[in-house]
Structure formats: C-alpha cells, structure tokens
Amino acid sequence: MTAATLSLAPVEQEVTSTEEVVSPDLPWVTIVWNDPVNLMTYVTWVFETYFGYGRPKAEKLMMDVHVKGKAVV
Known about the structure:
two-stranded antiparallel ribbon; alpha+beta
C-alpha cells in the first residue's frame, strides 16, 4: 500500500460566463411618504446626507412630504 501525496499548488480553472451583464435602468426615483414617526429635521438630514441635496432643497422636499403626503426624490 502506498501513501497518497497531497499537492498544495493552486488549481486554475477558466470560468466562462454566457450570462449577459445587465446594468440597471437609470434614472430611478425614490418616493418618500409621510409618517407619524420621523421628525422633519431627521427627514431633512436624510435628504442632505443620503441624497446629497443642499439645505434649501432638502427642506423643500421635507415640506412636500409633510404637506402633500409624499415627495419624489
């Protein structure tokens, strides 16, 4: 009986993909709905930090959410 020899050399395998790379359709929008939980200052902060709006635009969008019930961001 002989002992088996293990190799630590990496095995290279070529992977070919037949799947098509699909990029997302742009542009897309986010609808922000009014709710009784989030404060207006927090909603303004989210618009500034996550969506990159300046303070005046963020406050206008926040007021749209508050008054109209929703805003498209």
